Each structure stands twice: as C-alpha cells, then as structure tokens.
User: What shape does this take?
Amino acid sequence: MTIIDMTIHELHAALKGKQISSVEATTALLERITAVEPQVGSFITVTPEQALAAAKAADHRIASGDCQLLTGIPLAIKDIFLTEGIRTTCGSRILENFIPPYSATSWEKLRDCGAVLLGKLNQDEFAMGSSNESSAYGTTRNPWDTTCIPGGSSGGSAASVAARQAVATLGTDTGGSIRQPASHCGCVGLKPTYGRVSRYGVIAYASSLDQVGPLTRDVADCAIMLEAIAGHDPKDSTSVDTPVPNYSASLTQGVKGMKIGLPKEYFIDGLDPDVQKAMDAAIDTYRRLGAEFVEISLPNTDYAVATYYLIATAEASSNLARYDGVRFGHRAEADGLLDMYTKSRSEGFGSEVKRRIMIGTYALSSGYYDAYYVKAQKVRTLIMNDFVKAFADVDVMLTPVAPTPAFKIGEKINDPLQMYLSDIFTIPVNLAGTCAMSLPAGFSAAGLPIGLQLIGKPFGEESILRAGYAFEQATEWHIRKATI
Amino acid sequence: MKITVADVEHVARLARLELTPGEKELFAGQMGAILGYVEKLKELDTEGIVPTSHAVPMENSFREDIARPSIGLEKALANAPSRAGSFFVVPNVIE
Assistant: This one.
C-alpha cells in the first residue's frame, strides 16, 4: 500500500513499527498536494516548511518511545481554525492577511498529540455555503468529477481526504457543513453533539449551531480523531464537562438488536432515485446485521430550513459585526469612522456573506424581531422536541445526507434558496444540537458518492460510530478511490 | 414577499454595508424569495412555546476568578491596520 492511501490507524502502525517515518509520510502527502492541487483546489495555504519541521519533531518523539495514535500523522484543517503564526482567512478577502495571535483548542489538542499540519483548507466564505463556491480563493472541485462541487462549507476538508492530500482533516458543521461534503466526496464526516468539542479559536458563524468535527477515510479514524478533540475547555463556556468515552473501544460491538429509526419525513418523493437505492441497500445491510427498523416521525422537519436561515443569519449578522477594519482584517481608505466601517466591510465580504448579514439584520431589526427571530427560536423548540420524542423509541436514526449527489459547479449559484434547500436533511440535527455522521453508502449511476446519515442521541457518538463501523465492515464503499 | 430597494437600503445601513445599485436590485429579489419562504413558519401555532436559544440545557458556567496572563500588547496589536505605540489608530470620531 502506498503511503498516501493509508488511514490514521494504518499509518500509525507503520510509524510505530518504524517501517515509515513521519518525514517520509509528510513528504509523500506534500508531493501529492503539489501534484493534484491544480485540479482540486483543496487548500488556501500549504505549509511545507512547518510540516516538515513538525514531522522531524514527531520522529524524535516516536524514537523516544512516545507514539500516540496521532503522533506523526499529517493532517490538514479548515481555514476557519485559528493557527498561531499561520495565516487564517476563513475563505474571506476581509481576512486575507490575518495572522492569528493564538490557536484553536481543537487544533492545539491534535498538535499536542504530535500531529503534523500540512496546511489550511478551502471553504465557503465564513462557512456560509453548501458548495465551496463562495470562497474568495477559488472553488474546490470534487475529486470524483471535477465539474462538480465538493459540497460545503468544509469542501476542502472533504476533497483533500478524497484526493489523498491529507490523511484526515477537521471541519466545522453549522447546518451540514461536515456531513454534506463528506457525503459528496465519499468520506466519513462526523458532527458531534453541540458542546462535545471546544469552539475556542474557531471563527464564529452561528454560535448556537457551530460545532467542530473530523473528516476521515474510515470510521475507525473518525473515532480516533473525535477522541483527541472532544472534551471540556475552560476557554469555551458552552463546551460540556462530561467524560469523553473511548470511542475506538466500542466500535466492534455490532448492531444486533439495535433499534434504528427511519423518519418518514426524510424519505420523500423528491429524493434522487440513486440516493433512494443506496438507502434501501443500507437498510437491507443493517437488517442482515441484526438491527431492527422502526418507522418514526419528525413532524416539523419541513420547517427546519426556514428556522435555520433565520437563526443562523441572525447570529451571523451579530458575529460578523466585529469585522469593522479597526483591530484586524481589511481596512478601506475612507472619510471618517462610519465610512471606514462601511467601506471595509463592503470591500471585504463576498456576496453570500452580505446576503446572510442582510437577512439576519432584517430578522433582528425593529418591528420584525418577534415575527422572525423569536418565532424561529420557538419552532426550534418544536424541532428539538420531535427528536426527544422519536429517540424514546430508537437508538439511532438512518437518513440520507443530501437529497441528491454532488451537483454541477454553477448549477445553484444564482438561486440561493435552492442552494439552502440542499441542506434539508442535515439542518435539523444542528437545530436539535445532537450528533450525526455521514458515511459512504454507494454511488450514483454517474459514479458520484452517496452518503448515509446516522443520527445519534445527544452525546450518543458511541452509538453512531458503532453502527457506522458495522456498516463499513459489511460493505466496501469506503475503499473505492476517487479517480483524480 | 415584497422587499423594495428602499427596504434593502435601510437594512444595509443597519448592517454597515454599502451596496451597488446592481446588488440592491439583486438582494431585493433574493431577500423577497427567502423571506417569502420563511413565512411558512407562520403556519405553526407556537402559542406558549418557550424559545430555544441554545441546544444544551445549561444555565451559567462559572469558574474561579483567577488572574491569568493574556496574549499581551504586541500580539494583540500585530494585526492592526494602523497603530501608534500601544494604540489602534482610527479616523477622527469627533471633528
């Protein structure tokens, strides 16, 4: 097996057994990045010198007998994570020259394990998008078909895993931004329960919905990454102080007797026939493995997208008020202070970001606050209650990740509402604050990956990882490689 | 739902954004479509429902009030578009 095809657990075994050094692995991936980056565009910034220095340090650490699961493993992270001393743009012109003075906790945790950072990954601007087309640094392309979008907003995080440019990556998920690109690029992506992973040092989009999670080649890697980044952080008061389970240890327990819910609102007429076929096959696989299926209902599903686009945009309009040209980021030439705020923001933000700030500002503005923002928060309660009720009868839920496989670049760019509706199956999970994972479950007739979503109870990551692992052991979808 | 160019201009002012005439036209149409779509929430009776601002049931999160070092002046000012000594420089606020 070539180095670039290895998973975290495979590479770890090779590093520990001294068959491969971290410098060799890092060099192989940096060469791969150089080779395919012109076609894929996964990265905003590649950091070869720092990567090789970190790899050397990891090799010393391994030689001294300290080889943790992530020691010496070359990773890349979305450009939304602050990295001290390394430019962090969040996909925006407004942060084109921003060098963070500190690092995100989730990245620090990986770094402290000895992981090697290859660079910062492309994304939709401020994580606002489902296609990576809103990045100010070019659109990332899907490694399975470069005329298609990779999904978004963590498009670079998914594409780089699929294109073998990084062993694993970190992304963020506010309405599906880990799961949807993972589904479109044929990798595993997990959005943990809100509060499971620290958001400190993650550039905020919608603070009550944002969550950090891994994108990986397989479920075992996903468990390794989640275990490394999860846990309470005194610097994020919304991170929850509950013990982090040993996710890897429970993977092999199987799904015999597990109750899997099928929410009827997710199996709609408009579902792409290839997606439907993949879901039917997945249900058959789970039946064979001994799981029981229960039809359940999440009656307010149809209201989730509307709820999300009020809450997320309202929070975004507030969070993005900090980009005013005063302390960091782009500052425009201007006459006076107000003019400086306005010009800096108007020059620095792209179209989708402006649109969402506008909708959020409208929803929070005088006279509309109760009718839009508070109404959406009340519907959020109804959506959360749907999940609580449904989870009384089942252990996990199985749904599609997206209604269609990856669409063409440019297809939805002029119709924001159609773009928003592509997140219809992922958004409710963020509103409910619970956890979910996307994993490869088939391919369309055109050869594009199709993802399966497993939704867990709050802090039920163990169950979805276990169910995902059982599925992966019984299928071979995750082994197929993108043609790039 | 009808959103006029005047509505767009009002919201843009609140959001500290300056839009071109083309953007104003475009946003009026798109915001109208998006806000029209979210109107469907009005179908739901939410009388007596408590709004959710946050998915995790937690009240306040307290910690000991212990002084710790901060990032320091140089790091805090390193990204300043304009600085003078230990200050961020901005255009005149009062003429």
Remarks:
- Chain B touches chain A through 48 residues (CB under 8 Å).
